[in-house]
Amino acid sequence: MAAVSESGIEGGPFGPVSPLRRRPPAPQNGRLDEADFRLTCDSGFGDGWNSYAHSMAWFEGRLYVGTTRATMPGMKLLFPPPDIKPWPVESPDDIYDIDRRVQVWRYTPEIDRWDLVYRAPEVPGRTVKRLVPRYVGMRGMTVFQGPTDAKPCLYMSTWAPAQAEPPDILRSEDGVEYTVVKRPPWDPSVRSFRTLQVFKGRVHTSPTGSNRGGKAQECVGSEAVIYCSDDLQTGIWQASNPESFGNPRNLTVFEMVEFNDHLYAGTVNPFTGFELWKTRGDGGPPYQWTRVLQRGAWRGPFNEVVVSLCEFNGALIVGTGIVNGGYHRAFKLGPAAAEILRVYPDDSWEILVGQSRVTPDGLKVPLSGYSAGFDNLFNGYVWRMCVHGDYLYAGTFSWANSLPYLPADKWPEDVLKMMKHWGLEHLTRNFGGFGLWRTHDGIRWDCVTASGFGNKYNWGVRNFASTEHGLFVASANPFGPRVAVQQDGEWKYVDNNRGGCEVFLGAPRAASVPPRS
């Protein structure tokens, strides 16, 4: 039996017992292991061009997933384009030869069935004499009821290709019929917007993609302004913050969440690192804002962007990253792995997963003991987080499965050392898929899967949904329908039945599983 010293620290025959060992066992409510997850759909709902399960929402007892299609061919349009050879997926030279019309799928848990409920129309191209998809992606979803909505409705933000008009917001009362509401008043160079965040009776959003100057740039908007509306059907939007929060190096506002009766917003800043701001939203827009963190929480541009935000146990959990999956080509920034920070209502903060450093707020060390990326250089984002039961789940983006296509002379020295020690096949097989981690206190983390649930092509956790049926985890997987593989020293394209987004459902193994329809 361990003794208790006068200081209250338990001791044994070999000295004090580690505080980690003295902690009570973790709660079981919401605790899920890898074996608790099952696949509900694979291969992009049967179509490998459905690359990302880009948005997800629980609406009237069913799960809705909006896809983004053919993201890997679409990367050829980025500026600058990725330096990868061969191109990872087989695709035509003209991207408009691919059916990129975005889709929305609906899942009914009681009968384990997915149904296609929306497909974007085709419209005449702006400068080409052909039909093009009106939207190629659904980037955000929320459920909201404004003054002119008879009931809570499903609202979705879209991604429009360069040959179509700027993106819109779609609205549905029943999840089957969809109409267009007027977009916020940004300029025509905006190609996409992401988060639809409800706060104090208003929906907030910001542009996150632009083709200004004819150069497609992801995570760079035409302006770093959060627009808000209390009634989306009227099309009346107002700016809620000053441009770039007064710092022109904030290129856009990337993520938002409500916490402690405040709206929190995180920026993209490749020069000095992200900034995190908060507001009570009193008195209507424009709001009064307070800066909480700056200079990437004093890590600089290696914390370029606030990728994910989630409230957990009375604190705000912040997931960071560098855009483009950990290496920002336009700014030659990275690669670097992502961090997880914890911010309290009084604006004090600490590092849960990340790099130790001296800051104006004192010495900060990772309380979990894990360095950035959970000790994994390939984890370029903490892409999404979700609370389920008593646990916080964090999903990463891993770029390890891109290694076969990247020029070796540009690999970081750390990667070259791993390649020499482990070999390419080992790295892609064991680290190519996303990581899914869970914690009940923010300090002790357990890895649920380090391999994308056994699919190295699942390079990121793109969405979560915590429901009464369990925890849904949706992936980003752009390696379909046909992927480049090396056979007998030559590159060939082969059918990939694990390419395209996947959706998993995690529930205790004792729970009943309905028959598959």
What does this structure look like?
By secondary structure, this protein is mainly beta. Helix content is about 10%, strand content about 40%. The protein is built from 8 helices and 40 strands. A 4-stranded antiparallel β-sheet has the order 4-40-37-36. A 4-stranded antiparallel β-sheet has the order 5-6-7-8. Strand 5 (about 50-60) and strand 6 form a beta hairpin. Helix 7 crosses helix 8 (about 425-430). The longest helix is centred in the C-terminal third of the chain and has 10 residues, at about 415-420. The protein is globular and about 65 Å long. Residues about 1-20 have low confidence and may be disordered.
Helix amount: under 10%
* Integer average pLDDT: 90
Shape: globular
Radius of gyration: 23 Å
- Flag low-confidence runs: 1-22
Number of strands: 40
The order of strands across the largest sheet is 4-40-37-36
Structural class based on helices, strands and sheet pairing: mainly beta
Q: Major β-sheet, in short?
A: 4 strands, antiparallel
* Oligomerization category of the chains in this entry: single chain
Give the termini separation.
56 Å
What portion of residues belong to β-strands? 35-45%
If helices are DSSP runs of H or I spanning 4 or more residues, what is the number of helices? 8
